[in-house]
Amino acid sequence: MCSGELAIEQRYLTDLHQRVDALRAQAAEGDGEFWRGELARLESVEDGLCFGRLDLCDGRRVYIGRIGLFDGDEPLLLDWRAPAARPFYTATAVDSQGVRRRRRITTRGRTVLALDDELLDVGSGDEDLVGEAALLASLTADRTGRMHEIVTTLQAEQDRIVRDEHPGVLVVQGGPGTGKTAVALHRLAYLLYTRPQLRSRGVLVVGPSRVFLDYIGQVLPGLGEHTVVTATLPDLWRGGAERVESAAVKGRAEMADRVAAAVRARVRIPDETVEFEFEQQVLRLAPRTCRNLVDSARRRGLPYHQARLVFEKEVVDRLARELAESMESVVLTETGEAIDGGNADGGLSAADLRALAAAGVVVDPDEPSGPRHLLDDTDRAGLRAALLADAGVRAVLDELWPPLTAEQVIGDLVGTTSWSTADIPLLDEAAAVLGEGVATFGHVVVDEAQELSEMDWRMLVRRCPTRSMTVVGDLAQTGSAAGATGWAEVLRPHVDDRWRLAQLTVNYRTPAEIMAATTDLFAAHHPDLRPPRSARSTGEQPWRLRTTTAELADVVARLASAHSEGSLAVIAPPVHRDRLAAALPVAVPPDLTDPVVLLTPGEAKGLEFDAVLIADPAAILDAGPLGHNDLYVAMTRATRRLGVVHPGPCPAELAGITASPWRGNAFPL
C-alpha cells in the first residue's frame, strides 16, 4: 500500500469529518422534528462517510460518500444517489463513462485503512494503482449477525435496479445471495433522495419476522435514512398473532367474499312489523319499509359502519315524521280547544306534552294563538335527536343493523378468538369491509414476498394507495402452501400491468461448491428456473454425516462445539427444536449476534452465516408440500462451509454430497 496515497486520502477524510462536526453542532442547537432528524442523519454517517473517488478523464476528481457535502456551490462529497455518482457503480473498461480511475476507500471510523484502484481508461498510462478487490474482501469477511449496506460495492446489475424509476410495482426476483434485500433497501434510500415527498407520506418495509427485521435494521440508518417504518404482517394488525397454523385455505382470495358475506349477513331484515317505544307511544316500521331502507343504505356503496349510519338516519327521519304528523294533528282553536286528538276535554294530553318537551318544544295550553303548526324545522331536528338518543329506539336499531368489530366477524367465521398469522389478513379484510381506517404509505418494500398469500396481498395493497412498491423474492424459495407460484397471478388483480420484473443473476454469498451441492435438489423441483451463478469459490467442499435420531442432538452439539471461526447456524425442522435447544449453547429466541444460533428454515430466510449445519434434511423435506424449497433455503445460507447431519439414509437429492466418517472434531465449522 502506498503510504503517500493513504496520507492524501486521510487528510481529505479528516476535512470532511470536520465539516460534518460543524453541521452536527448546528443541528444540536436547533429545535423541532426537522433538526432532530438532521442530527440523527449526520450521526449515522460517522462510519464510512467517504468510500470512493472518481478520477475523471477531464482532470476533475470526485469523492463519493453517504451524504452530500458542499463548500458553497463546490461539491466536496457527492451523495452516492446523485446522478453524477452513478459511474462509480456502472463504469467499466469497455464503457468508462469518462472515468479514468475508480478508487474504493476503506475506513474504520475516521481512519483510512485501505485503498483499491481500478484503471478504466487503459490508454491513460496511469501506473499509480493501489489495493486489492474491495468486493472480494467484503464477500469473505466474517458475518456479524447484522446485514451491512452494500453501497460501497454495488455492482452494475444491482445499481440498475437501485436507480430504477418505475412508478408502479417493481419485482426484484433473485436467487440466494444475489443481494436482493440489500438492493431493495438501497432502492428505497434512492427513492427517498429523488422523491423527497415520500418522507411526508411515509415508507414501510415489511419482512417475514422480527428476527429478519432486526438483521436488516442497520442498513437504512447507515445510508442516512431514519424515517422508515418496519413491520411484519401481524404487526400491521392491532392485536397481532398468538399462534401459527396452516394458511393454505385462509390465504385464498375467495376468503374476501366470505368475509364480506359474513358482514352483510349481520343486518337483519324483519318478517314482521318492527315496533319502537318512545315516550309511551308506539311507532311502527313495516317489513317492506325496513327492507327498502336497508337497500337504500347499501346502494350508497359505503362500508358497513358508514352505511349503518345512513340506515339509522333514514329510519329516525321516518319515525320523526310519523311522530310529528301525530302531534300536528292536534290543532288548537282560538279558545284553546283541541281539534282531533288530545284529552277528552279537548286539551293536549300528558303524552303529547312529554313528546313535545322531549323534542324541545314548550307549549303553554293556557295561551293559545288560534290554529297553527306546533313544530318548526328546529323542533323537528330536536325530535330526531331525541329519538336517536332514546335507549329503546337505539336498542331496536342495533338489533336491525348491529355494531360490529372485525374480531366478532372473523371469530364467528373461523370459530376462534385466538388469532393465528393466517387470521391476520382476514381480520384486516373485515376491518376494511366495516369501514375501519388503516395507516397508509407512499411506498412499501415487501421482502420474502413469495411467502405472501392472496389475502396477505390484499392487506398490503390497502396500505399503499399509490401502488408504488418494491417487491423482493425468489419463487424457488417459497415455503408457504399459500405462497406465490408466479408474480403475475398475485399482482395483476391489484395493479393490472403496472408491474415490472427485474432479475438478479449473480450469487455473491454462496460459494460455487455449495451451489453445486444444491444442483440435484433444484433441478428436481424447478426445471424451468435457473439458479444464480456464484461469483467465487472457496475450495471447501460440503460434507454429510450419517447418525441416528436418538444421537442427532448429541452429534450436532459436538460438531457445533468445534466451531471456532465466524458465525454458525444450526438449521433444523421444528420437530427437533426443543431437543437441539437443550443440547446447544444457543439463546431462545435466537440472537443473531451470538456465535451459534438455532433456526428453522423459515426463520433462516434472508439471513446469512459463515457456516451452516443442517440437522435432519429428510424431516425438512417431509414437513410440507414445499419442503424441498425449505431445504434449498437452508443449504444456501452459508458464505463458506456447509455440513449436513442425517439420521438414517441420506435423501436422494443430497446423495452427491461427500459422505465423511466421524472423527471427533474433524469437521471445522
The stretches of 5 or more residues where confidence is low (pLDDT under 50) are: 368-372
How many separate helices?
A: 26
| Rg over alpha carbons | 35 Å
**Spatial shape:** globular
Percentage of residues assigned to helices: 25-40%
N-to-C CA distance: 33 Å
Proportion in β-strands: 15-25%
* Spatial strand order of the main sheet: 3-4-2-1-5-6
Strand count, sense and closure of the main sheet? Answer: 6 strands, mixed
Structural class based on helices, strands and sheet pairing = alpha/beta
Number of strands: 24
Arithmetic mean pLDDT: 88
Description:
- By secondary structure, this protein is of the alpha/beta class.
- Helix content is 38%, strand content 18%.
- The strands form six sheets. A six-stranded mixed sheet has the order 3-4-2-1-5-6, with helices on one face.
- Helix 18 links the parallel strand 14 and strand 15 (469-473).
- Helix 1 (3-29) runs antiparallel to helix 2.
- It is globular.
- Residues 368-372 have low confidence and may be disordered.
